[in-house]
Design goal:
The complex is a heterodimer of chains A (about 240) and B (about 300). In chain A, about 15% of the residues lie in helices and about 45% in strands. Chain A is mainly beta and about 240 residues long. The N and C termini of chain A lie far apart (about 45 Å). The N terminus of chain A is likely disordered. Chain B has two domains: about 180 residues, no CATH class; about 100 residues, 2-Layer Sandwich (Ribosomal Protein S5, domain 2). In chain B, helix 6 packs across helix 7 and helix 10 runs parallel beside helix 11. Chain B is globular. The chains are: A mainly beta (about 240), B alpha+beta (about 300).
Chain lengths: ~240, ~300
């Protein structure tokens, strides 16, 4: 009986996966700007992109909706949507994650032409570089000279990450693994403004051997404390070499 | 997550052992570079703990060597220099404790002379890229006795170690580019033995503007260049700044020295020692980038031109 139940569930999950893959394919073809929204339909899903001017007349709010036909269930939650500049410019302008209903809002995007990329793996979004309450109260000069560290995990605990403000005021990020199968994998990461969802810093690191046997790490400086005043959301994924683009 | 001040080798080992992530290891290293190595070595010297110092030099101890070499070969060389100067300091302390009546240079290899030989050997290993034979160290040991006029006159460990380095400097070719001058070893050993810094013939101070990256603001500091006698045309920092210079900063220092030599200003037999102090009294924790180069060159020109 259990076996039958499992085989019954699989087609549903598969269909949900197909919906997401079709949505990702449609989104890659779509373009929008402050003047023009977009709509596309596939066999299993419809996508609408609805940009609206903000009151500042410089930025727009963009609502993106992925609507699965025939009440198909797709696991949209936490899938990251990358907003990229159109016209050959590199980099990601904004990253926001879909909610369970397949919707996402980019609150403040500068006017311009954009394209989209939906990642197929849920992202883990971690708040980093925020001011801790105790340091907000009365931060003396000496307190700001201390090392401040944020830590977490990804890939089911196989990858650990660390963001720190060093005593010298340098902000450094590191991804580390002890899983040999992840050696050489690439970690594209972004630091995203939690309000506007705009990307403040973006880069990719490769997990390379460290001096410690059985450990691989990618790390870099992302700037000085004054350049990297948070809070930010850290968004990252771990991809095999050659698939980073 | 502040790291504790590292004062001893056992604290150092404990911090390293507790550093699970590579980022934590880098944090431990930063504390060590900012005086942790120096303080741990000074503590070992005070306790005469040669065994610990030798253990940290043992290339077969992978855990310790991981830490020594963690920041690259250049930094590892500086750490080994600290350890070897500490060993020389330990031996100097033991030699001065010998009863004058026990000391004789007539019978090399007697226990007392062995101690002197070990002082010389430790000092020689600190300064030399090549090893020497025990036989010529015997000869040098007798020269050291004569130079120190010891056991006839009471000498301090700091004075004896300094004499040993001076003696060895005469047998060492001029340091190549990138090698540390003997003057640096002498200063480091004095510092480890708690002795006063060697006296300069004269000095020159310049005001410089550093950038505090933590606050993105300028910091006024004083750069002092000191003309040191009995040198080998070296240009080096005081020991506490030696490990916090990055590659660009060191290159700027080497370039300034090469400039001083190139324009024919450098006086034979002199070193220049430099120090930097923030005017607000806070410690300098990091020296990065090449921008100090012009100030170094200007200071050297002024220092030598005063002659």
């Amino acid at each position: 009986m259990l076996k039958n139940k499992t085989t019954e569930e699989q087609p549903g999950a598969q269909r949900g996966r197909q919906v997401i893959e079709e949505a990702a394919w449609l989104l890659r073809q779509m373009r929008f700007s402050q003047h023009r929204g977009a709509y596309a339909e596939g066999q299993q899903v419809a996508i609408s992109i609805d940009p609206r001017w903000n009151t500042d007349n410089e930025t727009m709010q963009v609502l993106i909706t992925c609507y699965a036909f025939a009440h198909r269930r797709a696991d949209w939650a936490k899938l990251p949507m990358h907003i990229l500049p159109e016209g050959g410019r590199a980099g990601v302008c904004a990253i926001a994650c879909l909610n369970a209903r397949g919707q996402v809002v980019i609150p403040r995007l500068p006017a311009g032409e954009y394209r989209l990329s939906l990642r197929l793996k849920p992202a883990r979004v971690e708040p980093v570089l925020y001011r801790q309450p105790e340091s907000l109260a009365a931060q003396g000069e000496d307190a700001s000279d201390e090392r401040r560290v944020w830590r977490g995990e990804g890939e089911g605990g196989a990858v650990t990450w660390t963001i720190e403000e060093t005593e010298e005021g340098d902000v450094q990020i590191a991804f580390e693994t002890s899983e040999e199968k992840l050696a050489g994998h690439v970690v594209p990461f972004s630091l995203v403004d939690p309000d506007s969802k705009r990307v403040h810093y973006s880069r990719q690191l490769t997990l390379e051997p460290t001096r410690t046997p059985g450990k691989w790490e990618g790390w870099c400086s992302v700037g000085s404390r004054t350049e990297m005043q948070g809070p930010y959301e850290l968004v990252f994924e771990v991809v095999p070499p050659g698939e980073a683009d | 997550m502040p790291l504790g001040q590292i004062e001893t080798f056992s604290e150092l080992a404990a911090e390293w052992h507790g550093a699970e992530r590579e980022s934590d290891k880098r944090a431990v290293w930063r504390v060590l570079a900012r005086g942790g190595w120096l303080r741990a070595c000074r503590d070992a010297v005070q306790r005469g703990d040669r065994a610990t110092l030798e253990a940290w030099l043992d290339k077969g101890d992978a855990t310790k060597q991981d830490l020594v070499q963690f920041h690259g070969e250049e930094a590892a060389r500086m750490v080994r220099t600290h350890l070897r100067c500490s060993l020389a300091a330990c031996w100097a302390q033991e030699v001065v404790l010998l009863e004058p009546s026990e000391v004789t240079v007539a019978a090399p290899r007697a226990p007392d002379v062995s101690a002197v030989l070990e002082l010389l050997r430790a000092a020689w290993e600190a300064v030399a890229s090549q090893s020497d034979t025990a036989q010529s160290l015997d000869v040098l040991a007798q020269e050291l006795f004569r130079a120190a006029r010891w056991p006839g006159a009471r000498v301090t460990a700091a004075a004896l170690a300094d004499l040993a380095f001076c003696l060895l400097a005469q047998h060492r070719p001029a340091p190549l580019s990138g090698q540390l001058p003997v003057g640096f070893f002498r200063d480091l050993t004095q510092e480890l033995l708690g002795g006063p810094p060697r006296k300069a013939e004269r000095d020159l101070s310049l005001t410089v503007l550093l950038v505090d990256r933590a606050r993105n603001e300028g910091v006024v500091a004083t750069l002092t260049l000191e003309l040191m006698p009995d040198g080998s045309e070296g240009f080096y920092p005081i020991p506490e700044l030696a490990l916090i210079r990055d590659t660009d900063f060191r290159q700027a220092q080497d370039d300034a020295r090469a400039y001083g030599e190139g324009v024919g200003l450098w006086q034979k037999g002199r070193d220049v020692r430099w120090r930097l102090q923030r005017r607000d009294g806070k410690p300098i924790i990091n020296l990065t980038g090449p921008s100090i180069g012009a100030t170094f060159a200007l200071g050297l020109v002024k220092l030598f031109a005063e002659e």
